[in-house]
Amino acid sequence: MEGPRAPRVLVAGIGNVFRTDDGFGSEVARRLSGLPWADGVRVVDYGVRGMHLAYDLLEPWDALIMIDALPDRGRAGTVTVIGIGADDVGGGAQVDAHGMDPATVLATLDVLGGHLPPSTLLVGCQVADTGDGMGLTPLAAAAVDEAASAVRSLVMRELHPGGVT
Asked: Which terminus, N or C, of the chain has the lesser number of Cβ atoms within 10 Å?
């Protein structure tokens, strides 16, 4: 007899590595992808491939943890965790493979026949620069380890909701 299945958690790095700090999510996902993860956890650097993320979200996931830059929202280098619910996602989005920022990806799920995972979180870093260029600014680079640690904690919380490890 099989026991209950392990929760399925998708960790999605988002960002454009050619736009300085906008590559934050990709860098955190790159660091996390080298770690061992429990069955049911998948870490992917989606970069600017939002349509790929939208289609992957058509699979049944218990949790989605996105990692992305948060420009113009506070002191650069600050890591923030934001919960996202169905009310936060506007429906009726048109599918546009060239404009798939996280909000558009999530809004597109209805059009594609999917739904928001029950637990959807964004681990974001307040960034200083999203102009043309490669490499994170020093403040964003210094926040990568903190964001990776936050993601690891969130994944553990999703895998063990009662606090039992």
From this structure: N
